[in-house]
Write a structure and sequence with these properties.
Largest sheet: 5 strands, mixed
Order of helices and strands: HEHEEHEEH
Strand order of the largest sheet: 2-1-5-3-4
Helix content: 25-40%
Shape: rod-shaped
Number of strands: 5
Distance between the termini: 169 Å
Structural class: alpha/beta
Strand content: 5-15%
Length: 212
């Protein structure tokens, strides 16, 4: 049986209108309920970082840094320049000693004075004694420049030098090596050319120098 049976035509029309209004209201209300839930969210402006909601214990977690910003935990790069290694301060190797010229002050090392000129004079009656002594001296590295006889009579073999020159150290070294004395030049030989002057007498023993 129809809901509007028994009613007059005008009443049926009014009832249908009310039903239609109710249906429209219901439809509008349903649409409002379904779309109204998204209205509560607040839109976040572009370029800003949203704030995190506090956790259940009330603590607010730290916000993440914005893209492109340096991390707070990254240590800055060291700007100190690399230390350069110190230059070596080691001293240079020693150079061999330089020799002077005859007549110049000299040292007392035998090897450094063998360049000094040595003149060998024979003051004995032994033939060839000066030549043999010169051979002995040269074999030991001495610089013999002159070999000849010497007149007069001297008591013993001596190497003579000019004091204060390289001749002094050379004469002492030569005399020590070959077993005779060294003394300053005496008057008669003062003006002879530069170099040590060895005047030999019969006490010079050549056999002691060549090992025979």
């Amino acid at each position: 049986m129809s809901l509007f049976s028994g009613l007059s035509r005008p009443m049926k029309a009014a009832g249908l209108a009310l039903v239609g209004v109710a249906v429209i209201a219901a439809v509008i209300g349903g649409i409002t309920l379904t779309s109204g839930g998204g209205d509560t969210d607040t839109a976040t402006p572009p370029g800003t970082t949203p704030t995190s909601a506090p956790s259940s214990d009330g603590a607010t977690p730290p916000s993440s840094p914005a893209p492109g910003s340096p991390s707070a935990s990254t240590p800055p790069a060291s700007s100190a320049p690399p230390s350069s290694a110190p230059a070596s301060s080691a001293p240079p190797a020693g150079q061999p000693g330089q020799t002077g010229q005859p007549g110049q002050p000299g040292g007392d090392q035998q090897a450094s004075h063998k360049w000094v000129t040595v003149r060998v004079y024979n003051n004995s009656t032994i033939q060839g004694l000066a030549e043999q002594a010169a051979k002995d001296f040269r074999a030991s590295g001495w610089n013999v420049s002159e070999v000849k006889g010497y007149p007069g009579r001297l008591p013993e073999t001596v190497a003579y030098y000019r004091p204060g020159t390289d001749e002094e150290a050379a004469a002492k070294a030569l005399a020590l090596e070959f077993g005779f004395r060294a003394e300053p030049r005496f008057k008669e030989i003062e003006n002879i050319g530069p170099g040590v002057i060895v005047i030999l007498t019969k006490d010079y023993k050549t056999n002691d120098k060549d090992g025979s």
